[in-house]
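batch_manifest entry 22 of 60
target: 3-hydroxyacyl-CoA dehydrogenase
source organism: Deinococcus radiotolerans
requested by: lab member K.T.
priority: normal
notes from requester: please return C-alpha cells only, no post-processing; we will run our own comparison against the previous entry in this batch. if the run fails, retry once and flag.
--- input ---
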Amino acid sequence: MSTENIVAQSRQDDVLILTIQNPPVNAFSPGVPEGLKAGLDAAAADDSVKAVVIIGGGRTFVAGADIKTFNMPREQAPDLRGTIEKLDAFPKPTVAAIHGTALGGGLELAMGCTYRVATPDAQLGLPEVKLGVLPGAGGTQRLPRVVGAQKALDMMLSGNPIKATEGQEVGLIDRLIDGDLLSGAVAFAREVADTRPLPRISDRGVDGAAPEVFAAARQGIKKSHRGQLSPELIIDLAEMAASVPFQEGWTAEATKFMQAKDSPQSRALRHVFFAEREAAKIPGLGKDTPTLDIRRAGIIGAGTMGGGIAMNFLNAGIPVTIVETTQEALDRGLGVIRRNYENTAKKGRMSQGDVETRMGLLTPSLDMGSLADADIIIEAVFENMDVKKDIFTRLDAIAKPGAILATNTSTLDVNEIAAVTSRPESVIGLHFFSPANVMKLLEIVRADKTSDTVLATSMALARKIRKVGVVVGVCDGFVGNRMVHRYGEEARQLVEEGARPEDVDAAMNALGLPMGPFQMSDMAGLDIGHAIRVHRAKVSGEPEPDGWLDRIVKTGRKGQKTGGGIYDYDETRKPRPNADVQALIDTYRAEKGVTPRDISTEELTKRLAYTLVNEGAQILDEGIAARAGDIDVIYLYGYGFPAYRGGPMQYADEMGLKNVVADLERYGQTPAPLLKRLADEGGSFAGLDAGRGR
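--- output ---
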C-alpha cells in the first residue's frame, strides 16, 4: 500500500483532512509517518489551508504502535517521534479527531496536535507499562502537562484507558462530538484556525507536582509492580516533566525508552502479548471450522468449583441449570453464589439489579434429567474416576444430540471418561482453575476423539466467558498440574535435603511468584495433594506415600482451611512457621539418615524454576502442548508466574538453554531430550515455536 493510500489527503474548503487508513486498527507502522509528514508538508505549502484534521479511517483512530516494529533497527522503525516533533512545530492548528481508541503512540500523536476532539465513547490511554516499556514519543512529558502529575501517573502506571468524557473533564479532550465526528472536527478546526499563539502542550507547566506525589507513586509500585523497571522510569520521567524544560525531558525519554525496551522484562511481556494471541489459534483448525451455539449450560455439582463455573456463564448472560444430589448442598451452593455477587455489589462493581439478573438466570435442580435441553454440560464433582464415569454414563442417556459433555477434571484421563459414552466426539475436558469465577485460565483438554467443532466451540466459549483458553492434550495432570507436580516434588526434596519451607517459598517469591510451592499447597489444601499422591501410588502399585508432607496431613493439619498446614495462619492468612512442623521435618530427615545442608537461594531458585522448564520441554516433545508459548500462558494465568518473566519457557530462553541444561545436570537432574537438543544447537523455545510456523 502506497503512502498516499495509507494516509489519504482530502479537502473541505480551508481544512486539510489526513485520514489514516491502516486497517484493522490503524497501528503506527511503516507508511503512516511518511503519509502524515507528506500531508503536513502539503498543508504548510498551501496558504489556502488554515487548519489540519487528522482522523482514523475505519473503526478507530490509532490504537498504538505496531509492537512487531519494536525489534526493528531504530533507523527502520516508524518515526513516531519525528512525526510528533513536526506536529509540535507546525505553524497552523492541527486537530486530532478521535473515535474508537487512541492508545499508546495514538494518544501521543493526538497530544502532539494543537487540539483534540473525540466521540464520547472513545478510549484514551498509555498502556506501555503492560509491555514493560514507557511512552516514548512524548507521553511522559505531555500527559502530566495536560492532566496534572497525579492523573498522569495513574494512567501511565496502570496502563488503563479512560473514556473521552473523563478526558474532557481532565483537559485531555477539548470538545466532545456527538454527531458526525469528521464534520464536528472540521467545524472546530475552523473555529480555532486563527488562534495565535498556538496552545502547544509542550509550552505548558505541570500542575500538582509536589514531591510527595512522586514519593507516593514510588512507594505504590513496590506492591503493584514489584521488581519491574518501566514503572520506575515512568515516575522519573513524569518528575522531570515537572522540573526541567520540555526538550530536556523529551531527550531523556528517548534514552529511557530504549533502556526499557531492551530489557529482559520488556522482551518477556512482549512475548506474553503474542503468546496469548497465538494460544487462541488451534493447530490444525481453520477459521472456518463450524461452532455450536451455546444458549444454555448445565453444571453438575454446586460446590466451590461448580458454583464458580456457573458464575462465568451467568456473567456472560447464559442461563445455567445447576444440579446437586441433596437440597442442603444445593442451597449451600446457591448461597455462596449470591454472597459472591452481593459482595461485588457492595464494592460498587455491579448494581443490585445486576445481582438479581444473574441469579435469575440460575435454575437449581436435584434432577439430572433437567439438563436435557442444555447445549453444554460440565461435570464438576470430586476427582474420582468411578464417580465421573457413572455421571457420564447417565449423561449419555440424558443429554440432547450434539450437546457438549465436559469434565472439569484436573488430572484424570479424559479419554477414559469419554469411552463410557456413545458420543466420545462430544466429550472434552474444560479444566477451570480455582476460584473459577476469578482465575482467567481455562485448559481445554482435547481427547483423542473430540471433534473439531467441539474444540472450536470450546475456544470460542472461553472468550465469551472471558477466559484465556489454551488447548492441551491428555496426560496425567495435562500441562499445568503435571508441571506443578514435578515442581512440588522438587520443593519437598529441597526441604528433605536441608532447606526450610519458608526459604523455598521466599526464593520463588523473590522470582516474582505471589506464592511459593508450600504457600500454594496450604491454600489448595494439603489433603488434596496427599490424595493425589495416594491415588498415583495405588495406580502404579507402589506403597502409600509417607513423605514429610504426608505426615503433616496425618496430624490433621490440612492448610489454611484448618488454620494450619505447613504454616500457621490467623485471620489475616499470613503464613507463620510452626515449630512442631519443623520438628517433624527434622525427625523425618533423621529417619532417612539425611544430614541437612545449607542450600543457597540461587540453588533453590534454579532447581525449582528449571524443574518446570524441564517438564515443560518433555510436554512439548510429547505434543501435549503445541507451543512453548502455550505453556507460558498457562503458568501466567493459572499459577501466577510473573508476566515480566514471560513464563517458565521464556525465562529459560532468557537465562540461555545451555546454562539451564548445565545447572540441571549439576543438580542431578536429567535434561529432557528436547531441551538438551535445543541447547546443543544453540536454539531456544521461541525459535522452536517460530520454526513450527506459530
